[in-house]
Amino acid sequence: MTDSTTSESYPIVKPLGWDFVQRVLRFLFKFLIHLDVQGLEHLPETGPAILAPNHVVWFDVILISAFSKTPPVTFAADKWDKTPLINILFRHFGQAIFVHRGAPDRQALTTALRALKAGRVLGVAPEGTRSHDGILRQGHDGAAWLASRSDAQIIPIAMWGHENIISDWLHLRRPRVHFRVGEPFRLPPEARKARSRDMGPYTDIIMRRIAEMLPPERRGYYA
Hints:
The chain is 34% helix and 16% strand. By secondary structure, it is an alpha/beta fold. The chain has one domain: Glycerol-3-phosphate (1)-acyltransferase (3-Layer(aba) Sandwich), CATH 3.40.1130.10. Helix 2 crosses helix 3, helix 5 runs parallel beside helix 6 and helix 6 crosses helix 8. The radius of gyration is 17 Å and the shape is globular. The termini are far apart.
């Protein structure tokens, strides 16, 4: 159980217009891209749960939003908090926690942990930043730390092909995009007692679950 303050801060309520936006996105996908989707049955309806995708381009967020069974709380770089209209979209639909880049943001992690303990679903890209080319980068420890402190289930997500969306559209081609959702899992029990600086092996567990769903040439650091 969580205290009333936490529960009131993070009620499991869909943002106004969420269902409509999902229907529109899925409708557009049918005409604008060749979308190969597998594993949607693994997406959670309640938390604590962490959606852990590879992070390629801005379209990641749109793909995940289109198929999530519950609106995830997301991380966003603090630069977007100062960008008109985009900041409104992030705050409303992404329920964003804005993160200061360049160093661990303890306040953001604390806010995210509170959301998980209130039963929310959290979206965290372990790579921390976009790869742009779809090649998996070395993971950061934030997702593993949050999972270890909340006992959240982790749902790995792998996406590829969407880094070419704009160029394909400009050439009047329908891009082929792949979206894979893996089976949920939890970190080993001993992760709960591991120190923050010892999260590396648990981050590797998460990243390898993502990597095994990607084509071999995209596994990068985890090939």
